[in-house]
């Protein structure tokens, strides 16, 4: 099937980089495919484009295929996450009014301590907190709820979660429609650049290694187009490896900045790629090593345990059976297809497909066929661990 063209939907975010790089740097062509990239206006439209066959694959919020498996968010085809596209990469920001109240209360905006930042936010939030997220089924929503709930905040009664497309987040906080947001880069930096908000935390301060975006396809397409699915996984894996090289960063920012991709200046995109973020209109900078990961620590591996975590927390938040949700979710992250696609490449994959989440307090070597795999620190800010179901 040499020369096949795959239509792939994406949202204008830095973490769409593996798809953009796969096409623009020739990794897709090495697999005998071309990617026709289609920019979507919102996550709901992108989900529907994929579910109803308008695109073959999509850059997708990791909880969306799981929500589809749980029958949430409307009718559509079953979806499979065949690779993780990115780990971390989101920021939590606050309005200028909240920023001032936090500073008046002595908060130092260290951009690192999720416990201290959360307690400070709760103390100045007043009776109700309006938080913007890009979609109801997103790591943004799950991690914000996890974070504030763990600190004792009555999320169901005191937090109003509002959804809006990422490019509109800065406008929403400028208009006073929300008090805070959780959004992928560069849209948090855009709020800072526009002088309408300040950044409080990277989400990696809440969960150090959370699966943010996945490469999603319809489950029936993955079965009938197994060869194309494998080629696509390999092209994206090679793109992630290229992105992990610090020498690629300048060119990556230039590729992403093109009008047909993110249409923003390279310097604002470089903040996420370099992990050096400007967090306020005062020009304060904070360094976040591994702010967004595309390759290191087997970042692309679709861990079934991570899917279980998402399914269980989503179900708890929405009043569903968490045990049943965890069982349904684990089948959505297709570590089997990922392993099959990368067999025979230089990829060193973990021996297991599930692990205890939150147990790694530092980067740690793990069992793998080549003996070279090091997984990244994956702690939760409150020290909890998540035990998955037995494989």
Automatic annotation (TrEMBL):
<keyword id="KW-1003">Cell membrane</keyword>
<keyword id="KW-0472">Membrane</keyword>
<keyword id="KW-0813">Transport</keyword>
<dbReference type="Pfam" id="PF13379">
    <property type="entry name" value="NMT1_2"/>
</dbReference>
<protein>
    <submittedName>
        <fullName>CmpA/NrtA family ABC transporter substrate-binding protein</fullName>
    </submittedName>
</protein>
<keyword id="KW-0997">Cell inner membrane</keyword>
<dbReference type="InterPro" id="IPR044527">
    <property type="entry name" value="NrtA/CpmA_ABC-bd_dom"/>
</dbReference>
